[in-house]
Design goal:
Blueprint: H1 9-35, H2 51-58, E1 66-68, H3 75-80, H4 84-91, H5 124-139, E2 145-150, H6 157-169, E3 173-179, E4 182-183, E5 186-187, E6 212-216, H7 220-235, E7 241-246, H8 270-275, H9 278-286, H10 289-299, H11 305-328
Parallel strand pairs: 1-2, 2-3, 3-7, 6-7
Antiparallel strand pairs: 4-5
Bound molecules: thiamine diphosphate and magnesium ion.
Thiamine diphosphate (TPP) binds next to strand 4.
Length: 343
Protein backbone atom coordinates (compact mmCIF):
# COMPACT_ATOMS: atom_id res chain seq x y z
CA UNK A 1 0.00 0.00 0.00
CA UNK A 2 1.23 3.47 -0.87
CA UNK A 3 1.92 6.06 1.81
CA UNK A 4 -0.73 8.76 1.80
CA UNK A 5 1.92 11.35 0.82
CA UNK A 6 2.77 9.30 -2.29
CA UNK A 7 -0.77 8.88 -3.60
CA UNK A 8 -0.84 9.88 -7.26
CA UNK A 9 -3.17 12.58 -8.53
CA UNK A 10 -5.48 10.13 -10.29
CA UNK A 11 -5.83 8.07 -7.11
CA UNK A 12 -6.70 11.15 -5.06
CA UNK A 13 -9.26 12.18 -7.65
CA UNK A 14 -10.65 8.65 -7.68
CA UNK A 15 -11.14 8.89 -3.92
CA UNK A 16 -12.80 12.28 -4.22
CA UNK A 17 -15.08 11.03 -7.00
CA UNK A 18 -16.18 8.02 -4.94
CA UNK A 19 -17.07 10.31 -2.05
CA UNK A 20 -19.19 12.46 -4.36
CA UNK A 21 -20.85 9.38 -5.85
CA UNK A 22 -21.89 8.15 -2.40
CA UNK A 23 -23.24 11.59 -1.42
CA UNK A 24 -25.18 12.03 -4.65
CA UNK A 25 -26.64 8.52 -4.47
CA UNK A 26 -27.96 9.24 -0.98
CA UNK A 27 -29.24 12.66 -2.07
CA UNK A 28 -31.18 11.03 -4.90
CA UNK A 29 -32.82 8.68 -2.43
CA UNK A 30 -33.84 11.64 -0.29
CA UNK A 31 -35.30 13.34 -3.35
CA UNK A 32 -37.18 10.17 -4.27
CA UNK A 33 -39.24 10.45 -1.10
CA UNK A 34 -40.42 13.87 -2.25
CA UNK A 35 -40.46 13.53 -6.06
CA UNK A 36 -41.80 9.98 -6.25
CA UNK A 37 -43.72 9.44 -3.04
CA UNK A 38 -44.51 5.84 -2.20
CA UNK A 39 -41.84 4.47 -4.53
CA UNK A 40 -39.46 3.42 -1.76
CA UNK A 41 -41.10 1.03 0.65
CA UNK A 42 -39.67 -0.19 3.89
CA UNK A 43 -36.80 1.37 5.75
CA UNK A 44 -33.90 3.17 4.12
CA UNK A 45 -30.83 4.22 6.10
CA UNK A 46 -28.53 6.76 4.54
CA UNK A 47 -24.78 7.09 4.92
CA UNK A 48 -24.14 10.74 4.13
CA UNK A 49 -21.39 11.90 6.44
CA UNK A 50 -19.58 8.54 6.21
CA UNK A 51 -18.00 9.18 2.79
CA UNK A 52 -14.42 9.80 3.94
CA UNK A 53 -14.54 6.87 6.32
CA UNK A 54 -15.85 4.44 3.70
CA UNK A 55 -13.59 5.59 0.87
CA UNK A 56 -10.46 6.00 3.01
CA UNK A 57 -10.88 2.46 4.29
CA UNK A 58 -11.73 0.79 0.98
CA UNK A 59 -8.96 2.63 -0.90
CA UNK A 60 -6.52 0.38 1.01
CA UNK A 61 -8.04 -2.86 -0.36
CA UNK A 62 -6.32 -5.35 -2.56
CA UNK A 63 -8.30 -6.69 -5.48
CA UNK A 64 -9.99 -9.67 -3.82
CA UNK A 65 -10.57 -8.29 -0.33
CA UNK A 66 -14.17 -8.30 0.91
CA UNK A 67 -16.18 -5.44 2.37
CA UNK A 68 -18.80 -6.47 4.91
CA UNK A 69 -20.76 -3.61 6.47
CA UNK A 70 -23.90 -3.39 8.52
CA UNK A 71 -27.37 -2.45 7.23
CA UNK A 72 -26.46 1.22 6.50
CA UNK A 73 -24.77 -0.14 3.44
CA UNK A 74 -25.19 1.92 0.25
CA UNK A 75 -21.75 3.52 0.15
CA UNK A 76 -19.55 0.42 0.11
CA UNK A 77 -20.74 -1.31 -3.10
CA UNK A 78 -20.63 2.05 -4.87
CA UNK A 79 -16.88 2.14 -4.19
CA UNK A 80 -16.44 -1.54 -5.07
CA UNK A 81 -17.86 -1.06 -8.55
CA UNK A 82 -21.43 -2.30 -8.20
CA UNK A 83 -23.86 -0.82 -10.72
CA UNK A 84 -25.63 2.17 -9.16
CA UNK A 85 -28.53 1.52 -11.54
CA UNK A 86 -29.02 -1.94 -10.05
CA UNK A 87 -28.58 -0.60 -6.54
CA UNK A 88 -31.21 2.09 -7.06
CA UNK A 89 -33.58 -0.45 -8.64
CA UNK A 90 -33.07 -2.73 -5.64
CA UNK A 91 -33.91 0.05 -3.20
CA UNK A 92 -37.01 0.81 -5.30
CA UNK A 93 -37.96 -2.88 -4.99
CA UNK A 94 -37.71 -3.57 -8.74
CA UNK A 95 -37.04 -6.72 -10.73
CA UNK A 96 -33.83 -5.33 -12.26
CA UNK A 97 -32.43 -4.64 -8.82
CA UNK A 98 -29.24 -6.14 -7.47
CA UNK A 99 -31.24 -8.84 -5.65
CA UNK A 100 -34.26 -8.82 -7.99
CA UNK A 101 -35.99 -6.40 -5.64
CA UNK A 102 -36.16 -8.80 -2.70
CA UNK A 103 -33.42 -7.31 -0.53
CA UNK A 104 -34.12 -3.59 -0.45
CA UNK A 105 -31.92 -0.95 1.13
CA UNK A 106 -30.84 -2.99 4.13
CA UNK A 107 -29.93 -6.18 2.31
CA UNK A 108 -27.83 -5.31 -0.70
CA UNK A 109 -25.48 -8.03 -1.91
CA UNK A 110 -23.09 -8.28 -4.85
CA UNK A 111 -20.64 -11.14 -4.37
CA UNK A 112 -19.16 -10.57 -7.85
CA UNK A 113 -17.88 -7.21 -6.56
CA UNK A 114 -16.57 -8.53 -3.23
CA UNK A 115 -19.67 -7.52 -1.35
CA UNK A 116 -21.16 -10.74 0.08
CA UNK A 117 -24.14 -9.16 1.82
CA UNK A 118 -25.38 -7.32 4.87
CA UNK A 119 -27.65 -7.85 7.84
CA UNK A 120 -30.40 -5.81 9.45
CA UNK A 121 -29.69 -7.53 12.74
CA UNK A 122 -27.17 -5.18 14.25
CA UNK A 123 -23.89 -6.71 15.33
CA UNK A 124 -24.46 -9.90 13.37
CA UNK A 125 -22.51 -8.70 10.35
CA UNK A 126 -19.47 -8.62 12.65
CA UNK A 127 -19.83 -12.37 13.16
CA UNK A 128 -20.44 -12.96 9.44
CA UNK A 129 -17.30 -10.99 8.54
CA UNK A 130 -15.27 -12.87 11.13
CA UNK A 131 -16.47 -16.12 9.60
CA UNK A 132 -15.38 -14.86 6.18
CA UNK A 133 -11.95 -14.06 7.66
CA UNK A 134 -11.72 -17.61 9.03
CA UNK A 135 -12.55 -18.93 5.54
CA UNK A 136 -9.84 -16.72 4.03
CA UNK A 137 -7.34 -18.04 6.54
CA UNK A 138 -8.29 -21.71 6.19
CA UNK A 139 -8.34 -21.55 2.39
CA UNK A 140 -5.25 -19.35 2.34
CA UNK A 141 -6.82 -16.94 -0.15
CA UNK A 142 -4.72 -13.96 0.91
CA UNK A 143 -7.88 -11.89 1.38
CA UNK A 144 -8.38 -9.31 4.08
CA UNK A 145 -11.95 -8.76 5.30
CA UNK A 146 -13.05 -5.20 5.99
CA UNK A 147 -15.78 -5.30 8.63
CA UNK A 148 -17.82 -2.13 9.31
CA UNK A 149 -20.31 -1.60 12.13
CA UNK A 150 -21.66 1.22 14.29
CA UNK A 151 -21.05 2.55 17.77
CA UNK A 152 -24.37 1.00 18.79
CA UNK A 153 -23.44 -2.38 17.34
CA UNK A 154 -20.15 -2.40 19.25
CA UNK A 155 -22.11 -3.25 22.40
CA UNK A 156 -23.50 -6.47 20.98
CA UNK A 157 -22.27 -9.81 22.25
CA UNK A 158 -21.32 -10.75 18.69
CA UNK A 159 -18.71 -7.97 18.74
CA UNK A 160 -16.88 -9.40 21.77
CA UNK A 161 -17.11 -13.01 20.66
CA UNK A 162 -15.92 -12.16 17.17
CA UNK A 163 -12.97 -10.03 18.26
CA UNK A 164 -11.92 -12.68 20.73
CA UNK A 165 -11.97 -15.37 18.05
CA UNK A 166 -10.19 -13.16 15.51
CA UNK A 167 -7.48 -12.24 18.01
CA UNK A 168 -6.92 -15.81 19.20
CA UNK A 169 -6.67 -17.17 15.65
CA UNK A 170 -4.99 -14.06 14.17
CA UNK A 171 -7.65 -13.77 11.47
CA UNK A 172 -7.09 -11.44 8.49
CA UNK A 173 -9.73 -8.85 9.36
CA UNK A 174 -9.92 -5.12 9.99
CA UNK A 175 -12.74 -3.98 12.27
CA UNK A 176 -13.88 -0.45 11.47
CA UNK A 177 -16.09 0.88 14.25
CA UNK A 178 -18.03 3.74 12.68
CA UNK A 179 -18.76 6.11 15.51
CA UNK A 180 -21.32 8.47 13.97
CA UNK A 181 -22.40 9.66 17.44
CA UNK A 182 -25.84 8.08 17.28
CA UNK A 183 -27.62 4.83 17.82
CA UNK A 184 -31.05 5.55 16.34
CA UNK A 185 -31.98 8.61 18.48
CA UNK A 186 -29.56 8.08 21.36
CA UNK A 187 -26.30 10.01 21.52
CA UNK A 188 -23.08 8.20 22.35
CA UNK A 189 -21.63 10.74 24.78
CA UNK A 190 -21.18 10.22 28.48
CA UNK A 191 -22.76 13.60 29.21
CA UNK A 192 -25.83 12.76 27.19
CA UNK A 193 -27.74 9.50 27.15
CA UNK A 194 -24.54 7.44 27.25
CA UNK A 195 -25.48 4.37 25.29
CA UNK A 196 -21.92 3.06 24.95
CA UNK A 197 -19.54 2.84 27.89
CA UNK A 198 -15.91 3.71 27.26
CA UNK A 199 -14.26 6.69 25.61
CA UNK A 200 -12.60 6.33 23.18
CA UNK A 201 -14.44 3.23 21.96
CA UNK A 202 -11.21 2.01 20.35
CA UNK A 203 -9.91 1.10 23.81
CA UNK A 204 -12.11 -2.00 23.62
CA UNK A 205 -9.21 -3.44 21.60
CA UNK A 206 -7.13 -3.65 24.76
CA UNK A 207 -9.29 -6.48 26.05
CA UNK A 208 -8.03 -8.59 23.14
CA UNK A 209 -4.43 -7.29 23.05
CA UNK A 210 -4.89 -6.05 19.49
CA UNK A 211 -4.13 -2.56 18.11
CA UNK A 212 -6.93 -0.06 18.68
CA UNK A 213 -6.84 3.49 17.35
CA UNK A 214 -9.29 6.34 16.96
CA UNK A 215 -9.15 8.34 13.75
CA UNK A 216 -10.86 11.45 12.38
CA UNK A 217 -13.39 9.83 10.08
CA UNK A 218 -13.95 13.14 8.26
CA UNK A 219 -10.38 13.03 6.97
CA UNK A 220 -10.18 10.53 4.13
CA UNK A 221 -6.37 10.41 4.12
CA UNK A 222 -6.12 9.80 7.86
CA UNK A 223 -8.58 6.94 7.57
CA UNK A 224 -6.56 5.61 4.62
CA UNK A 225 -3.40 5.70 6.70
CA UNK A 226 -4.74 3.94 9.80
CA UNK A 227 -6.88 1.36 8.03
CA UNK A 228 -3.98 0.75 5.65
CA UNK A 229 -1.67 -0.15 8.54
CA UNK A 230 -4.31 -2.48 9.95
CA UNK A 231 -4.84 -4.13 6.55
CA UNK A 232 -1.09 -4.70 6.11
CA UNK A 233 -0.92 -6.24 9.55
CA UNK A 234 -3.87 -8.53 8.75
CA UNK A 235 -2.38 -9.52 5.39
CA UNK A 236 0.94 -10.36 7.05
CA UNK A 237 -0.84 -12.89 9.28
CA UNK A 238 -0.54 -10.77 12.42
CA UNK A 239 -4.26 -10.64 13.09
CA UNK A 240 -7.02 -8.10 13.55
CA UNK A 241 -7.10 -4.42 14.53
CA UNK A 242 -9.88 -2.15 15.68
CA UNK A 243 -10.13 1.30 14.08
CA UNK A 244 -12.68 3.70 15.55
CA UNK A 245 -13.58 6.19 12.82
CA UNK A 246 -15.39 9.27 14.14
CA UNK A 247 -17.76 11.26 11.97
CA UNK A 248 -21.36 12.46 12.03
CA UNK A 249 -24.56 10.98 10.67
CA UNK A 250 -26.06 13.83 8.65
CA UNK A 251 -29.40 12.18 7.93
CA UNK A 252 -32.04 10.96 10.27
CA UNK A 253 -31.63 7.37 11.46
CA UNK A 254 -33.92 5.92 8.84
CA UNK A 255 -36.67 6.91 6.47
CA UNK A 256 -39.86 5.16 5.64
CA UNK A 257 -42.35 7.57 4.16
CA UNK A 258 -44.93 5.56 2.31
CA UNK A 259 -48.26 7.06 3.31
CA UNK A 260 -49.75 10.55 2.90
CA UNK A 261 -49.26 13.29 3.82
CA UNK A 262 -46.14 13.36 1.70
CA UNK A 263 -43.59 15.95 2.87
CA UNK A 264 -42.73 18.76 0.50
CA UNK A 265 -39.16 18.68 1.74
CA UNK A 266 -37.06 15.73 2.84
CA UNK A 267 -36.89 15.74 6.65
CA UNK A 268 -33.12 15.91 6.64
CA UNK A 269 -32.87 17.35 10.11
CA UNK A 270 -35.48 15.05 11.62
CA UNK A 271 -33.16 13.47 14.17
CA UNK A 272 -31.49 16.72 15.01
CA UNK A 273 -34.74 18.62 15.38
CA UNK A 274 -36.10 15.86 17.57
CA UNK A 275 -33.38 16.69 20.03
CA UNK A 276 -33.19 20.40 19.25
CA UNK A 277 -29.52 19.98 18.36
CA UNK A 278 -29.27 22.36 15.45
CA UNK A 279 -25.94 23.75 16.69
CA UNK A 280 -24.47 20.26 16.85
CA UNK A 281 -25.63 19.63 13.30
CA UNK A 282 -24.22 22.94 12.03
CA UNK A 283 -20.86 22.25 13.68
CA UNK A 284 -20.72 18.82 12.07
CA UNK A 285 -21.67 20.25 8.68
CA UNK A 286 -18.76 22.69 8.95
CA UNK A 287 -16.50 19.61 9.09
CA UNK A 288 -18.21 17.93 6.13
CA UNK A 289 -15.73 15.33 4.82
CA UNK A 290 -16.34 16.21 1.17
CA UNK A 291 -15.92 19.92 1.78
CA UNK A 292 -12.65 19.27 3.60
CA UNK A 293 -11.19 17.04 0.92
CA UNK A 294 -12.28 19.36 -1.90
CA UNK A 295 -10.63 22.32 -0.15
CA UNK A 296 -7.44 20.31 0.31
CA UNK A 297 -7.35 19.15 -3.33
CA UNK A 298 -8.08 22.62 -4.69
CA UNK A 299 -5.46 24.14 -2.40
CA UNK A 300 -2.76 21.72 -3.46
CA UNK A 301 -3.56 22.08 -7.15
CA UNK A 302 -4.57 18.43 -7.55
CA UNK A 303 -8.07 19.58 -8.48
CA UNK A 304 -9.09 22.64 -10.50
CA UNK A 305 -12.47 24.36 -10.29
CA UNK A 306 -13.18 23.29 -13.86
CA UNK A 307 -12.31 19.67 -13.14
CA UNK A 308 -14.42 19.73 -9.99
CA UNK A 309 -17.39 20.95 -12.01
CA UNK A 310 -16.84 18.20 -14.56
CA UNK A 311 -16.69 15.50 -11.87
CA UNK A 312 -19.81 16.84 -10.14
CA UNK A 313 -21.72 16.86 -13.42
CA UNK A 314 -20.62 13.33 -14.30
CA UNK A 315 -21.67 12.04 -10.90
CA UNK A 316 -25.02 13.83 -11.09
CA UNK A 317 -25.67 12.37 -14.54
CA UNK A 318 -24.80 8.86 -13.33
CA UNK A 319 -27.31 9.04 -10.48
CA UNK A 320 -29.96 10.61 -12.71
CA UNK A 321 -29.59 7.57 -14.97
CA UNK A 322 -29.82 5.28 -11.96
CA UNK A 323 -33.14 6.83 -10.92
CA UNK A 324 -34.51 6.60 -14.48
CA UNK A 325 -33.43 2.97 -14.75
CA UNK A 326 -35.03 2.10 -11.42
CA UNK A 327 -38.32 3.84 -12.20
CA UNK A 328 -38.55 2.08 -15.57
CA UNK A 329 -37.99 -1.37 -14.10
CA UNK A 330 -41.05 -3.53 -13.30
CA UNK A 331 -41.85 -5.01 -9.91
CA UNK A 332 -41.16 -8.72 -9.44
CA UNK A 333 -44.18 -10.89 -10.13
CA UNK A 334 -46.18 -11.76 -6.96
CA UNK A 335 -45.64 -15.49 -7.55
CA UNK A 336 -41.89 -14.93 -7.24
CA UNK A 337 -42.31 -13.94 -3.59
CA UNK A 338 -41.57 -17.46 -2.32
CA UNK A 339 -38.98 -18.33 -4.96
CA UNK A 340 -35.97 -17.75 -2.72
CA UNK A 341 -37.54 -18.96 0.51
CA UNK A 342 -36.00 -22.26 1.52
CA UNK A 343 -37.61 -22.97 4.87
C1 LIG B 1 -30.27 -7.08 17.28
C2 LIG B 1 -30.93 -5.79 16.95
N1 LIG B 1 -31.34 -5.00 17.96
C3 LIG B 1 -31.95 -3.81 17.69
C4 LIG B 1 -32.15 -3.42 16.39
C5 LIG B 1 -32.80 -2.07 16.10
N2 LIG B 1 -31.79 -1.15 15.62
C6 LIG B 1 -31.67 -0.88 14.30
S1 LIG B 1 -30.41 0.17 14.01
C7 LIG B 1 -30.01 0.27 15.62
C8 LIG B 1 -28.87 1.14 16.10
C9 LIG B 1 -27.60 0.91 15.39
O1 LIG B 1 -26.69 1.91 15.76
P1 LIG B 1 -25.22 1.87 15.24
O2 LIG B 1 -24.66 0.52 15.41
O3 LIG B 1 -24.49 2.99 15.89
O4 LIG B 1 -25.35 2.11 13.67
P2 LIG B 1 -25.79 3.41 12.86
O5 LIG B 1 -27.28 3.34 12.69
O6 LIG B 1 -25.39 4.59 13.64
O7 LIG B 1 -25.09 3.30 11.56
C10 LIG B 1 -30.87 -0.49 16.39
C11 LIG B 1 -30.81 -0.58 17.86
C12 LIG B 1 -31.71 -4.29 15.36
N3 LIG B 1 -31.86 -3.99 14.08
N4 LIG B 1 -31.09 -5.46 15.67
MG1 LIG C 1 -24.07 4.91 15.18
Amino acid sequence: MQKKEDLAKDRLLWMYTQMLRIREFEERIKRTFVEHPGVIRGHTHLGDGAEASIVGALATRSENDLAMPSYRCHGYPIVLGTSTKKMMAEIYGRKDGLCQGFGGSMHLADPAHHFPGTSGIIGQAIAHATGAALTAQVKNTGQVIYCFFGDGSSKQGAFYESLNMAAVWKLPIVYVLENNEYQVYTHVSLEDANHAAGDPLSQKAKAFSIPGVTVDGNDVLKVYEEVGKAAERARAGRGPSLIESKFYRFSAHGNAITVPPVPTQFPEHEAIETYGKKDEYAAAKAKDPILQFRTKLLGSGVLSEAENKRIEETVRAEMEEAVKFALASPFPAPEEAVKYVYA
